[in-house]
Amino acid sequence: xxxxxxxxxxxxxxxxxxxxxxxxxxxxxxxxxxxxxxxxxxxxxxxxxxxxxxxxxxxxxxxxxxxxxxxxxxxxxxxxxxxxxxxxxxxxxxxxxxxxxxxxxxxxxxxxxxxxxxxxxxxxxxxxxxxxxxxxxxxxxxxxxxxxxxxxxxxxxxxxxxxxxxxxxxxxxxxxxxxxxxxxxxxxxxxxxxxxxxxxxxxxxxxxxxxxxxxxxxxxxxxxxxxxxxxxxxxxxxxxxxxxxxxxxxxxxxxxxxxxxxxxxxxxxxxxxxxxxxxxxxxxxxxxxxxxxxxxxxxxxx
Length: 302
Known about the structure:
The chain is an all-alpha fold. The protein has helices at residues 3-8, 12-39, 45-62, 65-69, 73-99, 103-110, 112-125, 131-149, 157-178, 185-207, 216-242, 246-253, 256-267, 274-290, 292-300. Helix 3 runs antiparallel to helix 10 and helix 6 runs antiparallel to helix 13 (256-267).
């Protein structure tokens, strides 16, 4: 059964709920960029990301006790593996965010990981990428080049960090797809989040100067990042994905950088230059090209 026909066979109220929940998930993800940027005003990067995922893991764990009880040695090892990769990606992401001057641009650079997934699958696992991958790469590279050329040819530190984080997350996606199988999703995610806290908080203690006092805004942004932008977002995404096809869910979630750019324009009054708009547009074109088979299937079912 095709993607379009399988979605069409679902009850109308399920399709509507899936779209609504997944759009809300994308909006919360965009808000998470704002929450994190505001939290960094009072918290050093490693401390923030370590506390964020330690709290998120504990909260998610409270909802995942039955699955955690079924976790065997293989599942635990898998959780530790993906947790270590996830920790590396999040450290690179938060370092990028601490240097970022434009959140909308940063979100589009981060989304390049979607285009890189099939490429890394070929490199590390020998998979054959779909033809759409090779059509997506040129506009993706051109888009990143446009963002780097804005104001003269120079790749800012934040851009490098976001690009490196995108590659780590693309590798993590492949590891989840090829190695981590038959492990309960909530249990795996709980372990993954807690591993980030365990791995990142000790370096934060040794390398960073912790705040001498904790203000209510600082705690508020931290909790919003952990509970709303991490735990709640994850649970909503699982709910949305359970009501529709993976391809349809991916297409809606692909809009996250667009929502982030809109949120940044509203919250920080960010304005993109013509070259930045062109770069972001090319990256979004690459995202569409990388999912063209799914898009064509959806359009063909109408």
